[in-house]
Request: fold
Amino acid sequence: MANIDLLVGTTLGSAEYVADELAEQLAQLGHGTQVHLNPDLADLDPKNLWLIVSSTHGAGELPDNIQPFLKAIMLHSPDLSQTKFALCAIGDSSYDTFCQGPELLINELIRCGAKEFVDKIQIDVQYDPVPEDPAQAWLATWQDSLK
Reply:
């Protein structure tokens, strides 16, 4: 079974709720999961799948709790060539910065060699006021590819 680190970027808690639901869904399938509300490079195994669940804050930025993680990656440029990630972005399409915050992090991960495991999902709370539902449906489409 796979080991999955869920990296959470949240301001008001919705991304945390989504991450908790995804972690539970994965655990029920026998995968090892750990939710990181304040992700730290030193605590993460680059061989695990990094499932990023994040909202966008302010003018297209990452939430405050995950910004130090982004800054650490930018500063240290770790070798992430063994790292695979999946992105579950949560946003509100009434803002012109819809889901742009997590893209900042993804761009840095890719710059450091990480590879996308599956296509990202961008959940629009204008149409999905309970973001856990589309997130769980998205996970269900690819969870069988985890080993």
